């Protein structure tokens, strides 16, 4: 092959490459408004499938439940595995626990609707995070009132619900504080968009300080014996001539009082006899 022939072949190859580069890659495909319409139909179908109120959504949910049930029966029949969700301890976030149904491929819910996590490496993530957790000294059990308020202000001060008009405090937040489950890594079960306040209500007293305050008040509170003792001391200091209370003195006082009551009753009866005001029972 001569030098001229080689140059001709190279020129032909260059023309082919140029033609391929200029060729419309979307030739034969749906374009323009038709393409947008097709995309809208596909997106609407996807929304209907995820909406349990539509017929398509109900059918999709029924199919998912049926498939999950068949998978559970298959596992139980072939491998003897009875899938059950793990029991959670109080204060444990379900999203930090792997869904057992998802683990065995038979969860009928999606990741965002399932109570548990659909991340197979969630246990590894929790172990990694525990390596960076603060020491036990920086926990709610070691905090006083000021420290707790400082942590709450730092952790929840920038939340979106801080400027909400509501004065209702989140029940999950209060429950976590009272049970000493609150901490730096606590997350509200109501989600990041919880509409209630994550702050201590006015007049809130930390339990440890409340106990100390009640003990101090109990120590400072005077009993009846203390009050009586103070009155006796004050009476002695007054210098008045008083009679000490003994059993004989009390019995004598009681006898005089009973006699006085009887005399009053008898005088009243005589007065009614004189005026002819006796009742039938008194006459009999």
UniProtKB/TrEMBL annotation:
GO MF entry, a single one: zinc ion binding
PROSITE patterns, A to Z: ZF_C3H1
Superkingdom field: Eukaryota
Zinc finger (C3H1-type) stretch: 93-121, 164-201
Residues covered by the C3H1-type domain: 93-121, 164-201
A GO-annotated cellular component: cytosol
UniProt signal peptide: none
One Pfam family recorded for the sequence: DFRP_C
GO biological process, one term: cytoplasmic translation
The keyword Cytoplasm is assigned to this record: no
Region (Disordered): 1-20
Keywords: Metal-binding, Zinc, Zinc-finger
Name assigned to this protein: C3H1-type domain-containing protein
Organism: Ostreococcus lucimarinus (strain CCE9901)
